[in-house]
Amino acid sequence: MALRSDLKKVLVIGSGPIVIGQAAEFDYAGTQACRALKEEGLEVVLINSNPATIMTDKAMADKIYIEPLTLDVVKRVIEMERPDGVLSTLGGQTGLTLSMQLAREGFLDKMNVKLLGANPQTIDKAEDRQMFKDMLDEIHEPVIPSKVVESLEDAIEFAATMDYQVIIRPAFTLGGTGGGICHNREGLVEIARTGLQLSPIHQVLVERCISGWKEIEFEVIRDSKGNLITVCSMENVDPVGVHTGDSIVVAPAVTLSPAEFGMLRNAALNIVQALGVEGGCNVQFALEPNSMEYAVIEVNPRVSRSSALASKATGYPIAKVASKIAIGFTLDEIVNAVTGTTYACFEPTVDYLVVKFPKWPFDKFVYAKRTLGTQMKATGEVMSIGSSFEQAIMKAVRSIELGLDTMSLPEFANLSDREVEERLDNCDDQRIFMVFEAIKRGISVDKIFECTKVDRWFLNKLGNLWRMEQTLTQETLTPELYLRAKKLGFLDKTIERLSRQKIGGMKRYASYKMVDTCAAEVEAQTPYFYSTFDEENEAELFLEKNNSGKKKILVFGSGPIRIGQGIEFDYCSVHCVWALKQEGYEAIIVNNNPETVSTDFDTSDRLYFDPLTPEDVQSVLESEKPWGVVVQFGGQTAIKLTKYLKSIGANILGTPAESIDAAEDRELFDELLERCNIPRPKGETVFTTEEAKAAAGRLGYPVLLRPSYVLGGQNMIIAYSESDVQEYMDIITSHELENPVLIDKYLMGTEVEVDAICDGQDYLIPGIMEHIERAGVHSGDSISVYPAQTLSPKIRETIIRYTGMLAKELGVIGLVNIQYVVYNNEVYVIEVNPRSSRTVPYISKVTNVPMVDLATKIMLGAKLKDLGFGTGLYPEGEYVAVKVPVFSFQKLHDVDIHLGPEMKSTGEVLGIGKTFEAALYKGLIAAGYELDKVGPAVLITVKDSDKQEIIPIAEKFEKVGYDIYATSGTASVLNQNMVAANTVRKIEDPAPNILDLFDSGKVDFVISTSETGRKPAIHSVKMRRKAIERSIACLTSLDTANALVNCLLLDKTMNDFELIDITQI
Amino acid sequence: MEQAQKKAWLLLEDGTLLEGLSAGAEGEAVGEVVFNTQVVGYQQLLTDPCYYGQLVVQTFPLIGNYGVNEEDNASENCWVKGYIIREWCEQPSNFRSKGGIWDYLEQNQVVGICDIDTRALTRRLRIHGTMNGLITTADPRPDMAEQLERLKGYQVKGAVAECCSKEKKVFTPETVKRSAVLYDFGYTKELLQALLDRGCKVTVVPGSLPAAEVLAENPDCVILSPGGGNPADCASLAAEIRKLAEAKLPVLGLGLGHQLLAMAHGCKTEKMNHGHRGSNQPVTDLRTGKTFITAQNHGYAVTSQSVDEGVAEITHVNANDHSCEGLVYKDFPGVSYQFAPDTAEGSLVTENLYTGFFEMADAVKK
């Protein structure tokens, strides 16, 4: 059929900011989509509010709008650009929902725009619970007994017939937000109420609980001709009950015999056929483990997290194929890019096993409820490929960066056997480790199965790992035993530790096998490798055969997406690869994250999908023998490899290892600052609680506490009193304290951030950013403004001067990120990171300085003065850009949403405008704040030290037309200062109190600040949680509140602001 | 892996010697080494007559995960001579499982070898083509030259005679819509079931039965079953099949049956480099332009150029290598397919292949 002749220009809708449940996988999908469309000569218009993505890069589309993803904005883009079609299925639920709204309203027809990738009937049938059920009934596919309800009463009535063993699924919410399993009437009432509230159509599905059944997924693709294939089957190690995004998943399914496999595959094909999907579709089944009974759980008629995983697991690029189908191609016309000789109309097969392991934020959110259920909590994931399950899971577990190299979680060693047995019932993020602990304690596989319903196949494989651990501790290490251990995924250091014997001459490096979609049946063109332990090394064979004569450079990726290390580092890694290729080098990526663009098989010249630990990396080096390696774009994950790479003599390009060390080592860094005569807040280094208290006393409260070697402000707090220090040290010393704790005087000034490029002599600062929130709120959680709006010329000059001095003195070759605090007209340095940073993508996009590109060239020897962007501070453009953080608090129960020095946001959006006001307004809208509906009420409850400062802010809210409610202390201050405030009782007081006010639906915003504590039991923490659960915007910094109310005062709507195509700035 | 496993070796005709561990029966097996890329279905594979005389490499590394049972046998025997895998599963897990793969191989005297780099082996077979091999638990190194000589001389012979039924058997479904003779060259239970499910009263007859006796049954249609071995060795069978076509009897040829029917009409067959063995082979129906996924297990194909347009039309081709996958005949109601439309996996897309044939057969009947 080929390309539809009625298409010349296509609008692609992206998925917006990274939130739990909708993450980097949609950058991967969107990027593939844009490339697929451009390949066919189409003009691509893109809208996405997320500036950290590769898809919003100028190379990806012809016109790019980094604008809020609201219906009105998308309509305006369509009116301006007049595309012929809208691609709806590549931008996650966000993109799909927007497209459907446009279609249903008749807007697309009116504008003569074709809806590509989906039709509303298909989407309704898949997403509307009742229609979905009816459709399945029609084709005789079984569903779980259930009822769609729109009221709490109906929910209770139906649940009673199921003995309250039911699960609640709200309609049209992201990643199952607001859903959950209930076991009694009380639980049902709570969950159903939240679900009804969160569903945009106030509808939930109450269904029979089938937790414990096997969860099996299929990725299916269908084209307009009706060609129909399955790309991949996947089996969740965690049975039904745990969201698939929170499950450990293997591909292909391993415990199904052909009878069940064929039955489910057929069912998947049947469903996709009946839906009439044209593109990719994910089908999830529950399979009763002891019979052929099954039920369809869910169907996603779009690309998804699972399709990204399936793509990486098989080498079959689902998003690309789905995009081509959307613009008219059929599967038999799309070439299989992996083989180059066959077509996309076949089913991939694999000759390895893939394991996906989620990355949860609980190491950061120590008080978060760790229980897993139907609501996804993971922020990211890793994938590993192995010749066996044991090998793959061992790789996965060392890739998730919890400091593990086996399935043993050290903290479980102290539990009694009984505790272990009891805790098997806890379905949380650590369950797989508890299962392993149970195996170690000799608890039987049957008993573990009874508790967890994790299939015995997996349990027995874990048993093999434990047996190997025992063998290693008991037997003499022979080459045979060593090789057996290697094949099961053990690292050398683990083998030596367990056996207390040296490996010495037995040492073997990993060999590499190719991921080729076809289990070697057809020769593959794309070098996508994973490690195993075999004689034949395909990577070596490939290199012999394809010697380009170019110098080879290895780029280390950033591993799983987590709070503090997100998609921005993938953006940097990918850009580095592009720059290296352009400069005539062969660029090779090592990474383990299946959601990203960097692990797309055609991003780099070669891809190694493997863990990023020293030993894993060493094998790649041994096989590739690269000329150089790059660590500065892969976040802390890659930086952590520096020491090791230096020790083996690898050629680290750019900033040398010593400099990286100097920036992270407190003493070295202090010496350096002294040499440069640059001030920093006073601080000390401590190891014990007593030392910490004493130091804090000397420095004077408030103080900032954090471990050295931090990532995203992990475990960082501001302590206002000795009890805060105590609470913090209790947590931090509960883990092994390898590195000291840093304790600094906390200066509550203006935070300024600079990214710079340095070549050893000159430096270039693309832009200076200023944070709206005062220092103390983590830079990743602050609203960041480029260019800085309030700095005096003198301060600005100081910052430029310090940046140049620091970069040069540190020996930075490439990128450096420096954070300053301006306090009493004095500039202090807070932190220097000689690597890429979170802000690089957005600053590159708004300043047009290709930062990673320049840094890469400089690492290869180029000089700034020859690169055409000048030196010093780059001239400011005519646009202001405001980066606004986005949080996923609704997904994380019991986490205090109060902003602080520990980063909490999962993603970000950007507002771009001619003025600061315009940019801020757009940024807030894009982040989900509702600025165009006024009132009726705002609730204010602030700590004593904020009470004076809140008065003018409250006054502004009053002026906009808001009714002000406040708790007694705050209210009396406001009333005394002529701002009329209604007093509302605190959450701990008898009703009616704040909760009733929340339930009344009057409150639009809550402004809440409190002195201390993150514990969920604290009333202020609880109150903020309740606000979040009711989708009420909650502001915990007066600066944010002030910025927001200033926007409200503008009395404008989004329509008053011009939409900006960033390719034109 | 607990038990100390015996060593085993795989020697290929080109001199490649791989060392692994014994799995299943000990001893030795000489055969044609072929690889199969499917992920599930090892038990059906082991019992499929198409693999007669062959040593099968499984590209999927983990074999035996869901155990074995009685229902999943494709026929009465294991026809695979030797089995080459990476890892076997000691503790299978599936509610249908009645035992493990090791015991199954041992009981059925299939000589197996595991701990082999099956991907490296598969690549060798893809690059150099199918070749003969020897699996043995006795070190072959002392008399390599002799062994290699032996391998060079090996040919798969007598597959049909070995695998097919020795006598006539009749199977009657609940509702009979028509009668069919299943000419048995090595049929599988699934094929028989597929025919029964579609209302055929099936008379299974040995592949060696003269056509006259089949005609004497006066069936409404004849199904030529798949089977193993080189079709060129079965010229006499093709000659008999020719008589069925001359009698204008509706004939459905599958696998080897498809090849023999083609040979009966003057077509040639050829040995493929490494064949099609797996559950993911795309087949395009040239008349509708639609492609669907099929399970296949063949090493020979009908040579497309040898198909006389006046006699038959190529209706189906493999979407990857464009080899002949289906024919429809012009002078009698005959159709044939290289692949097996009878697997449960493919039923959604291949149902119409049966329906089409039976409609044609029923029309002739009227």
Provide an overview of this structure.
- The complex is a heterodimer of chains A (1065) and B (366).
- Chain A is an alpha/beta fold and 1065 residues long.
- Chain A folds into 8 domains: 108 residues, Rossmann fold; 64 residues, ATP-grasp fold, A domain (Dna Ligase, domain 1), CATH 3.30.1490.20; 138 residues, 2-Layer Sandwich (D-amino Acid Aminotransferase, Chain A, domain 1); 151 residues, Carbamoyl-phosphate synthetase, large subunit oligomerisation domain (Carbamoyl Phosphate Synthetase, Chain A, domain 4); 143 residues, Rossmann fold (3-Layer(aba) Sandwich); 64 residues, Dna Ligase, domain 1 (2-Layer Sandwich); 116 residues, 2-Layer Sandwich (D-amino Acid Aminotransferase, Chain A, domain 1), CATH 3.30.470.20; 123 residues, Rossmann fold (3-Layer(aba) Sandwich).
- Chain A is 36% helix and 20% strand.
- Chain A is built from 36 helices and 39 strands.
- In chain A, strands 27, 28, 29, 30, 31, 32, 33 and 34 form an 8-stranded mixed sheet that branches.
- Chain B is 25% helix and 32% strand.
- Chain B has 2 domains: 150 residues, Carbamoyl-phosphate synthase small subunit, N-terminal domain (Glucose Oxidase, domain 1), CATH 3.50.30; 206 residues, Rossmann fold (3-Layer(aba) Sandwich), CATH 3.40.50.
- Chain B has 366 residues and is of the alpha/beta class.
- The termini of chain B are far apart.
- Chain B is globular, with a radius of gyration of 21 Å.
- In chain B, helix 1 links the parallel strand 3 and strand 4.
- Chain B is built from 10 helices and 19 strands.
- The interface between A and B is large, with 60 and 58 residues.
